[in-house]
Amino acid sequence: MEEKKRETWGSKLAFILAAIGSAVGLGNIWRFPVMTGNNGGAVFVFLYLITVAFIGIPLMLAEFIMGRYSRKSVVGAFSIYNPKSPWRLAGYLGVITGFGILSYYSVVAGWTIGYLYKTAIGEFSKGVNPEYTKLIFQSFVSSPFASILCDGIMIFLTIVVVIGGIKEGIERWCKILMPLLYLLLIVIDIRALTLPGASEGVKFFLYPDLSKLTLTSVIAALGQAFFSLSLGMGVMVTYGSYLSKKEDLLNSSIWISGATALVAILAGLGIFPALFSLEGVTPEEGAGLIFKVLPNIFDKIPLGRLFGVTFFLLLIIAALTSTVSLLEVISAYFIDEKGWSRFKATLFTGAITFILSIPSALSFGGAKIFTHLYKGEGVLVILDLIFGNFTLIIGGLLISLFVTLNLKQEIAKKELNLPEKLFKIWYLLISLVVPLGIFLILVFKIYQLISS
Ligand code: TRP
């Protein structure tokens, strides 16, 4: 029935690349440095890597199992046994989180479009310094017209790719351009690491200062692991649902997680040494961090302008393969559960996202109310805290509970097809370590909030 009609990936490589495409994006190149800077440097980096290995990979497997077994997107996968079951709500949470993340992610992705333009017209070739790059950033993000325009372009591009469907749309974009991104990051690293003062940055990024270890940094690292691997809202459920039965899930998820974490590390190894070699920027720069730092580096690379243009172009594409995965989850819900055509579902969800994204686009000075919403933070930062951290973690908790409490163990066994010992390790992680870890962290956080 269902099975025959559902599209599947053209090849295993195409699937892996699309999943890496979803995972690798602004989360690793923009968000990871921001979080590392705000949460004490190397301690955060190690927490992130540990979480990727022991929580991220088991959870990614759980999402693949749910998707491939049910052949449904996230809401359908949660209610596979009983369409009226309350688990359905967990699926809705995924769809809502998708809207939430996409609505601000597209704004930051829009900034990269703006920076591509600025670099191309040579705005950073006139002798840059951090003071100047800070000013440029501020004036760009506070312009309502520029922010909304770039945000709109990003959402439009996403809609076009998602309407194309998984084969024509998503696969094609990921194949050639991803490897180039790694190459460019390595060039940035080499330049940054050879700048005077770089060693301070390396120290900040790689030598943990345990006094910086706090509950907040643990939660931030957990959220970052989910965000960077696109976990907790059903992207990997949806992508898994297009996956043919013969692919090896463990092998795939190790590749995907490794490739993604590598991008984050490469980005950090470029940003922090560069940052410490500059006067006047600190690790706690917040959402503008990479936009304030990177143009200074491009200036110090031969053919810097061309290099910068290529870099921002690749960053846009990396962001696009991520926004595509977010919109795909939301529209797959309307396609699978409401029976809408792909065209209608995508256009509708894309339009809603654009409307929802406007407050974020105006939250860095464009409009006062959106700029100082809560404790001095704007809409974009608050949405990132809620949807990029909190609901993803809850989503992850629900997925781990669903797979262990609801799905028969035989199903997981068959889908994973692992030696008994490895299966037992996975099962221990997903049934105990993941839910208990997330649960305890949430309880501590709530306790902290109440007692403060
Ligand atoms: N992982 C992507 C990035 O790092 C962002 C992303 C895409 C995402 N799909 C997601 C984050 C689903 C959380 C959930 O840029």
What does this molecule look like?
- There is one protein chain.
- With 452 residues, the chain is an all-alpha fold.
- The protein is built from 20 helices and no strands.
- It has helices spanning 2-5, 12-23, 26-38, 42-70, 74-78, 87-120, 130-141, 144-163, 165-193, 198-206, 215-229, 235-241, 249-277, 289-298, 304-338, 342-361, 368-371, 379-405, 409-416, 420-451.
- Helix 7 packs across helix 14.
- The protein is globular, with a radius of gyration of 21 Å.
- The chain binds tryptophan.
- The site of tryptophan has 16 residues, from helix 2, helix 3, helix 11 and helix 15.
Topology (SSEs and partners):
Elements: H1 2-5, H2 12-23, H3 26-38, H4 42-70, H5 74-78, H6 87-120, H7 130-141, H8 144-163, H9 165-193, H10 198-206, H11 215-229, H12 235-241, H13 249-277, H14 289-298, H15 304-338, H16 342-361, H17 368-371, H18 379-405, H19 409-416, H20 420-451
Bound molecules: tryptophan.
Residues 22-23, 25-28, 101, 227-228, 230, 233, 235, 322, 325-326, 392 line the site of tryptophan.
